[in-house]
Predict the 3D structure of the following.
Amino acid sequence: MQDLINKANVLMEALPYLKRFAGTTIVIKYGGHAMADAQLKESFARDVVLLKYIGLNPVIVHGGGPQINDTLKKYGIVSEFVRGMRVTDAATMGVVEMVLVGQVNKEVVGLINRHGGRAVGLSGKDGELLLAEKMLQEVRQEDGSVEQVDIGFVGDVIHVNQALIDTLEQGKFIPVIAPVGVGAGGESYNINADVVAGRVAAALKAEKLILLTDVQGVKDKQGNLLTGISVGEMRRLISDESIVGGMIPKVECCADALAGGVKKAHIIDGRVEHAVLLEIFTDKGVGTEIVQ
């Protein structure tokens, strides 16, 4: 009987969050270990379906770096990176688009639909969902100067066609977006999935942006998890090198989304089963919440 009471208490803890977030849009960047572990993939799909059934509007943006790496190796294409960004020539872009749109996207859509959802896969080319332009990478030279380096078909989002996503949401569908954009001339661009998620969240004025990562969240220099920070505090943590490496672009993405109208951003540990539900519907959450 006590186990049943405990389950009821969990539901009661979730009640105010269910009321608060009903009808709102939640943009989730899906990537990392959560995309590789079979149990976590199933768990994530069920969580997304649950969100839709209880009245939220989840929008999924997925990555696919490991899958791209594996396929490039099969084709004998060697990747070069400039400050963490993959140099993307025409051959590499063809593989990136094939893997993200034709493989990973369909797998995520299939998982969600198998668990009772109505997911629809999209790339930035569909309905000109993600208009993009070439992004030049800044590289600091030995003399301290900064050079703009062309790294190929790597892009940045300049416009999101939110009307397409709104139409899908109104039809009770779950959009699943591959981070491939389209340029003015119809060319494809490889875009960082965190960036896409942030721009989509801002365009939709989402209630939340959630980034699934392979770490607990943002930590201080002592390794303590910071459960909640403001953008100002985030800037100070970058300045004193508490936030370093790959976490910097993630928190910057969150800051941009908040500046664009997103209410809250979260960086959470995707290795934790049901991490998305725990972050949204419990008092403590499981990661770092960033607010304006």
The CA atoms of residues 46 and 157 lie 30 Å apart. The chain has a mean pLDDT of 91. The chain has nine helices and 14 strands. The two ends are 44 Å apart (CA to CA).
